[in-house]
Amino acid sequence: MAIKAGADALGLVARMPSGPGPIPDGMIAEVTAFVPPPVATFLLTSETTAEAISAHVRATNPSTVQVVSHIDPAESEKLALLEPHVRRVQVIHVEGPEALDLIPAYSPHVHAFLLDSGRPNAAVAELGGTGRAHDWAVSAAFVQATERPVFLAGGLSSANVADAIKQVRPYGLDLCSGVRTEGQLDPEKLSAFVLAVEQTDAELASTSPAA
Q1: Interatomic CA distance for residues 179 and 187, integer angstroms
Q2: Is residue 173 a contact partner of residue 151, using CB atoms and an 8 Å limit?
């Protein structure tokens, strides 16, 4: 359903301390084997050491690994050595302007960042799927401060995605709850979201100065 709607990537949520939609590693491996190119497969892992993340990648065979915890940058560096052929995306949970301070620690070791609205230091860590938007002004500043591509997540829906794109100018969008009803992917919400993104892209393209 997601591929037919035009998704460029599928996010495959492995075990998490909280949040909706985790699926077993065996099912993730089945999906990564099935998905046709050029659609990417993102493994969302809550592992925090390079060795554990590498083992998770090798068990599930995604094209990209999305590290949802603020891991030690030394582990990020080690992961780049262990899995040089897998795209690596570091999630940054935007709780304030201090999110920008994490850019130099991770930039040398990752291919992209993803900004989300989790609370990694909560009593039960929230590492995604919150359905909450964060301060997009911080996200916009983050995009300006790094040369790495930046994906935006956190409470996105067809109702607010145009504003999100215009304010943040992300490389891509990541969403979960905004296209679901009672935990299931909703074709109507999915279609409305894709339409809103396409309309916003077309609007921005028509107002951009010619190259």
Answers
A1: 8
A2: yes
Check residue 19 and give its pLDDT: 72
Question: Within 10 Å of residue 28's Cβ, how many Cβ atoms?
Answer: 24
pTM for the full predicted model? 0.92
DSSP labels for the chain?
A: -HHHHT-SEEEEE---SSSS----HHHHHHHHHHPPTT-EEEEEE---SHHHHHHHHHHH--SEEEE-S---HHHHHHHHHH-TTSEEEEEEE-SSGGGGGGHHHHGGG-SEEEEE--BTTSSS-B-S-------HHHHHHHHHH-SS-EEE-SS--TTTHHHHHHHH--SEE--SGGGEETTEE-HHHHHHHHHHHHHHHHHHHHHSPP-
